[in-house]
Amino acid sequence: MATYHIAVLPGDGIGPEVMEQANRVLDAVCTKFDITLERTTYPVGGFAIDQHGEALPQTTLDGCEQADAILFGSIGGPKWDSLPLDKRPERAALLKLRSHFDLFSNLRPAKIYSGLEHLSPLRSDIAQSGVDVLVVRELTSGIYFGQPKGLEGEGEEQFAFDTMRYSKREIRRIAISAFEAAMKRNKKVTSVDKANVLVCSRLWREVVEEVAKDYPEVKLEHIYIDNATMQLICDPAQFDVMLCSNLFGDIISDECAMLTGSMGLLPSASINGSGFGMYEPAGGSAPDIAGKGIANPIAQILSASMMLRYSLGEVDAADAIDAAVVKTLEDGILTAELMPKEERVNASSTAAVGTYILQQI
Amino acid sequence: MATYHIAVLPGDGIGPEVMEQANRVLDAVCTKFDITLERTTYPVGGFAIDQHGEALPQTTLDGCEQADAILFGSIGGPKWDSLPLDKRPERAALLKLRSHFDLFSNLRPAKIYSGLEHLSPLRSDIAQSGVDVLVVRELTSGIYFGQPKGLEGEGEEQFAFDTMRYSKREIRRIAISAFEAAMKRNKKVTSVDKANVLVCSRLWREVVEEVAKDYPEVKLEHIYIDNATMQLICDPAQFDVMLCSNLFGDIISDECAMLTGSMGLLPSASINGSGFGMYEPAGGSAPDIAGKGIANPIAQILSASMMLRYSLGEVDAADAIDAAVVKTLEDGILTAELMPKEERVNASSTAAVGTYILQQI
Ligand SMILES: CC(C)[C@H](C(=O)O)[C@@H](O)C(=O)O
Ligand SMILES: CC(C)[C@H](C(=O)O)[C@@H](O)C(=O)O
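# 3-isopropylmalic acid complex -> structure
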């Protein structure tokens, strides 16, 4: 019987309530597949600021160090928005965890589930043609972390600067992530850059071309970020895996998520070179609906499934969760935001969706 | 009788044929409003490379220097894509003209014309709610032009770097453009940044807040670029003026253009501190349809109208062109790409649309 240690960081807003459902579903697959998941819960985000004075207390970081993976909820909210930037939940916890564990490979799948096409903000013929994209975003370099960064000068000539920076090594490892993912999907990689303007993008293209040689079955295309933003809207079905730098991936992955119209269904994974990873919903902490029992737990549950698949290698358990989610959606067990306004009286609660999913396992 | 000198740079692809129609329409308003526009045509882009060995010959630059404004067509095409980056039409001509004339204020209006809602790739209820956005993009600084930029190191540790850089002065002048534009529109500015990650964005926010104090009637909001990309898709009607840095404006303006579904209708202006400007369609040179007489001339004609309005101060003439275009669209005088596939047998040619427009003047 396999035993794993998981650091559970529920965070703020809807984090704790959706995490509760993910834990219930994990209990169900553990029983079925004879897995032991030792889970320890740690404070993070605004909750940790309120309790311990900082968004990522040392005990939380230590707990993550000792774990095989991190299951993360969501963090932030208006209460902590007036803190200095470096203390805020997003930077002090999220960016810190990414860089501390070198979680360079961020996988953000976005798809329109069959039957939920009407949620997409796209014209119905385009939504019907489908959105099923995996954004592979570089997460620990680029303009997020590049040095130098700062302010210089005086008066009107005072200027700010940020450095976008990529090494061949950094580009190569994320490109490999994208091609490996494409081999398990539809064998197409679209690399997003701005090679007509950025030196980083030129090196990016060069290294991506080199990596592509090792994957002759995968079709590679290059697209400028401005054009990618447009093509996603008028013809999203042309994309399979989209390979992006940190900043462009931030933009493209959010655009893809919005195109599905169901952010509450989308998980994400952030993985390092040894398979250690952090798994979290694509959406935010949604403070406006927190505590009401109406938040969609599926993104959190699918994040747990990605954790089983990518960090623990428990593929059967992950498949079981994914299948249970598909069945639940097909059976119309939906939280309110997935339903047309006039049908929302029949919406399922956070807990009811969790229960239905674990019953399918 | 006012006399102006215009440098006309038709360029490549559909550039020359749509420029021909813009010239005919300009002739009509000149007669009606007693304006003299002395126009001299100069080579630019791939055409100039073929004829003179470079995308922006000195004679063209000199001609622009002596003019009151530049009316630009479009440049580039597969024929010149294999040239080294610095020789290619986009960089050698477009970026060069922008920086040479300090054309820092790029105005890109995007709207869905009444009756053309079906062209939008958005779900019909969203398209019906309307898209009417003016993107004000900073065009001569940021990561496009920031120094240093380059490649260093060896082997896998070789790295590329680009510098995003903004001074208070540069931010202030583009912010003023945005607020001035908002005063003539719906009095709302949404400033797009990534202040949770970039030092440039923090200085951007600070200066934009300062400028806002001089425009108490204008409502100011700040939005992160990733969220802006999403909000544009699910609720574009919330935006009036979107104020963006160079890179974010590149992305946001193209997204806005795509949301209208009618890129062939969208003009743009790039203006400097003395009112000198370059006016060009938002779309590209469309080499695939060049020379067939089917390209939509309206973006070029509206670019001529923006030129009359912003560089020459001939507001009545500009209003006349805009009204003629609206009437033409309402009367259903459309090029093929604006029509449903099954109706395209009734499409108007490039010249027929030009003729109809000038008849309305
Ligand atoms: C909160 C923010 C710093 C973060 C990012 O830009 O990476 C978020 O937008 C994301 O995509 O995870
Ligand atoms: C051709 C390219 C350099 C240019 C830009 O990025 O500015 C284009 O995309 C534009 O928006 O005018």
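# post-check
Chain A has a mean pLDDT of 97.
The CA atoms of residues 320 and 345 of chain A lie 30 Å apart.
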